[in-house]
Amino acid sequence: MKMPLFAAVFALMPAPGFPALAQTEPDAVGAVKADPLAQSGSAFARAVYMNDKFEILAGRMAVEKGSPAVRDFGRHMIAAHTDSSEDLKAVLDHNIVGQRVTPPPVLDPRHMAMYHELEASWGRTFDRIYLAQQRAVHEEALDVMEGYLENGRVVDLQDFAHHMVPVVRDHLAMLRDVRGDIAAN
After folding, report:
1. In terms of C-beta density within 10 A (0-12 exposed, 13-18 middle, 19 or more buried), how is residue 86 classed?
2. Is 167 buried (19+), middle (13-18) or exposed (0-12) by CB count in 10 A?
3. Would you state the pLDDT for residue 185?
4. 85 with 46: CB under 8 angstroms?
5. What is the rounded distance in angstroms from the CA atom of residue 80 to the CA atom of residue 65?
6. What are phi and psi of 72, to 5 degrees?
7. Are the C-beta atoms of residues 130 and 69 closer than 8 Å to each other?
């Protein structure tokens, strides 16, 4: 049965008092909020997936464009964040949150801007930008993990966060070493 055009348009309009979801909930369109104190299980999982996606893509670029130390770090980030996404998927496969969250098909606008900044850089400038971004995203990831560990309501995801906190701390320590190596050369 065909629906008249005006009825189809009317059906797609938000009801009065109920704004369109994509306009009020950036999470619905792939943007990530990292407020660790106010995250639902779904928001936490989306934040982890988005971070992993960015880390993998940026790591691939680091392998292609970075100095030797940055290439090695990039390889490690690709492997570690691939594992993180797989571990999260395994948790979500056994949890109701998994019915609402899937890996993002594209980067959100903030991560895409960071990616484009990397694309436009070369040599030492690339290394400097990549390492600065890595520090920022890992510090944010640590805040998200620790925040969900303390305040989350989904036990399986809290266990995941508990497992990931030392991994993220290790990445930050590795990053300090790489930054020191780059500065020394």
Report:
1. exposed
2. middle
3. 57
4. no
5. 19
6. -65, -45
7. no
User: What token pair was written down for 43?
Assistant: 């928001």
Please state the rounded mean pLDDT for residues 54-71.
97
110-152 confidence digits (pLDDT tens) = 999 999 999 999 999 999 999 999 999 999 999 999 999 999 9
CA distance 175 to 130: 11
Please state, in angstroms and rounded to a whole number, the distance separating the CA atoms of residues 41 and 100: 10
What gap in Å lies between CA 98 and CA 124, rounded to an integer? 41
For residues 112, 55, 103, 153, the Cα torsion angle rounded to the nearest 10 degrees is -110
Query: Could you give the residue ranges of the DSSP H alpha helices within the chain?
Result: 5-12, 21-24, 41-65, 68-92, 109-119, 123-151, 155-184
Q: What confidence tier does 10 reach under pLDDT thresholds 50, 70, 90?
A: very low
- Closest by alpha carbon to 141, among 32, 62, 31? 32
Domains and CATH numbers, the chain: 37-184 (1.20.1260.10)
**pLDDT at residue 183, rounded to an integer:** 63
Using DSSP, state whether 14 is helix, strand or coil: coil
pTM: predicted TM-score of the whole model, two decimal places: 0.77
Q: Shortest CA distance to 112 belongs to which of 46, 35, 65, 53? A: 53
